[in-house]
Specification:
By secondary structure, the protein is an alpha/beta fold. It is built from eleven helices and nine strands. Strand 3 (102-107), helix 4 (114-123) and strand 4 form a beta-alpha-beta unit. The protein starts with 9 loop residues before the first helix and ends in a 10-residue tail after the last helix. It binds iron/sulfur cluster (SF4) (2 copies).
Length: 333
């Protein structure tokens, strides 16, 4: 799924930038956490307990950090980033600071309106990722926001009608939503959207109640097989790489042993300008000292960003994912 903001000729430019960053051991993906505050009430994350006073210490610009990293992928995240009324200014400043980049905004969607989406799109957002773990009221309950699910669908339809052509649902595989995954994928396909899957972890606040256990192993195997089969028929809806999906059964069985490259290939800049290797680790030092990170023997999560950073480059497969095609584009082996 390629936004109309990009053309096929951008693909080799991004591949070149990716190689340049890797050769210089720089993060390919930088997450800017603009606030830790959040107005949801998720049971598996404590960010919403951040006091309102934290606002006064939040950076007024991330442009210097963006210029320093010069990443290929930028993600605006939180907390809930839409709580920042100056988010458009933050996005526009980074848009000016980095020439070739792909910019994503992650939101729970409860405060997103078609008008706000348009102003963020115009400021430099290329992709909206909206959390969606169930198609029904269970999602409202899980996030503690009444009416959230229907609001998301109304907003996304209006965004699509208004020309915003790159919306994805961020969906976390949990113990009680495996039956929802293919219906979410089909709903996304009908709406012209994508789905980005991650696996639930208790690393955020120790809440083990949604962990995938032995009872779900066979269901997970079956689901992954169905998702890969779906991708063979229709690229560009399930946006995870084939590799990422193929590793999920290993992860849930506790068989993953490879070191995590967070802090090296991906990094998080905190609201006050510190860096941390991932959202589940504390802030370590100022962003300019990021080279102190080394790979770590941690397998506490299998978030999409962690898993995709580990994925070997299967160029033909990834280009087909990005282009939303089912065959290999000419010239790509
Ligand atoms: S998971 Fe997201 S939506 Fe839920 S409290 Fe944490 S930051 Fe907010
Ligand atoms: S596996 Fe990596 S991204 Fe996940 S919690 Fe551990 S260090 Fe963080």
């Amino acid at each position: 799924m390629l936004s109309s903001k990009f053309k096929p000729y951008h693909v080799p430019l991004f591949l070149g930038k990716y190689a340049w960053l890797k050769a210089r051991r720089r993060p390919v993906l930088v997450h800017f956490e603009v606030t830790m505050r959040c107005n949801a009430r998720c049971g598996f994350c404590d960010y919403w307990k951040t006091p309102a006073e934290a606002k006064k210490d939040e950076l007024k610009s991330f442009a210097d950090a963006a210029r320093h990293f010069d990443p290929m992928l930028v993600t605006w995240t939180g907390g809930e980033p839409l709580l920042r009324r100056d988010l458009e200014d933050l996005v526009a400043a980074v848009d000016r600071a980095v020439r070739l980049k792909y910019v994503t905004l992650i939101t729970h969607g409860g405060m997103l309106t078609p008008e706000r989406a348009r102003s963020l799109w115009d400021a430099g957002i290329h992709q909206f990722n909206i959390s969606l773990d169930y198609l029904d009221g269970r999602h409202d309950v899980a996030r503690g926001i009444p009416g959230l699910t229907e609001k998301i669908f109304r907003t996304v339809e209006a965004m699509r009608a208004g020309g915003i052509d790159n919306v994805r649902f961020n969906t976390v595989l949990k113990d009680d939503n495996l039956d929802q995954i293919l219906p979410i994928v089909r709903r996304a396909e009908e709406m012209g959207c994508g789905v980005n899957l991650s696996v639930y972890t208790d690393a955020k606040n120790g809440n083990t109640s949604h962990l995938l256990g032995e009872a779900q192993h066979r269901e997970i195997d079956d689901l992954v097989a169905r998702l890969l089969a779906f991708k063979r028929r229709r690229r560009g809806v399930v946006t995870n790489s084939d590799y990422y999906l193929e590793q999920i059964p290993r992860y849930v069985r506790g068989q993953m042993t490879e070191p995590c490259r967070s802090g090296i290939d991906t990094i998080h800049v905190s609201p006050t300008g510190g860096v941390r290797r991932c959202p589940d680790f504390p802030t370590d030092f100022h962003w300019s000292e990021y080279r102190r990170y080394e790979p770590i023997a941690c397998n506490d999560c299998y978030y999409a960003c962690r898993g995709e950073a580990q994925a070997p480059i299967r160029i033909a497969s990834r280009v087909r994912d990005v282009m939303g095609t089912t065959r290999t584009p000419a010239g790509v082996a």
